[in-house]
Amino acid sequence: MDINKIIEHAQSLENQLYIKYKLVEQPNKEDIVKWYRLTNLYIAKGLPPEDASRKAAWETFDIDINILRKSQTDTIEALLLKAQKSVEENEKNGG
User: Fold this and answer.
1) Rounded CA gap, 63 and 51, in Å?
2) Rounded to whole angstroms, how far apart are CA atoms 43 and 23?
3) 3 phi and psi, to 5 degrees?
4) Please, are residues 73 and 21 in contact by the beta-carbon 8 Å criterion?
5) What is d(CA 81, CA 25) in angstroms, rounded to the nearest whole number?
6) Per residue in 16-36, pLDDT tens?
7) Nearest to 17 by CA among 2, 42, 47, 38
8) Which pick of 20, 25, 39, 83 has the fewest CB atoms within 10 Å?
9) What is the DSSP letter of 8?
């Protein structure tokens, strides 16, 4: 396997969310859009970004709290920026 593809996958938004929230499976684009929008809604309602994103994750993804993944993920701000770019690209392409 190509090391560049491995690194790209490890840094992808899907993988970062998968690790951060102990997801059972990699999220799809529709779930990422839902998570992103809910997170921003909860931030607008006054929740701190970390709490807002966690609440949105629980409402969007299938989470297994027993999963232990020893890996670092980006900050929530970096994840939201990646999600914003993904959502904007998806909307631009008619999705």
Assistant:
1) 16
2) 22
3) -60, -35
4) no
5) 22
6) 999 999 999 999 999 999 999
7) 38
8) 25
9) H
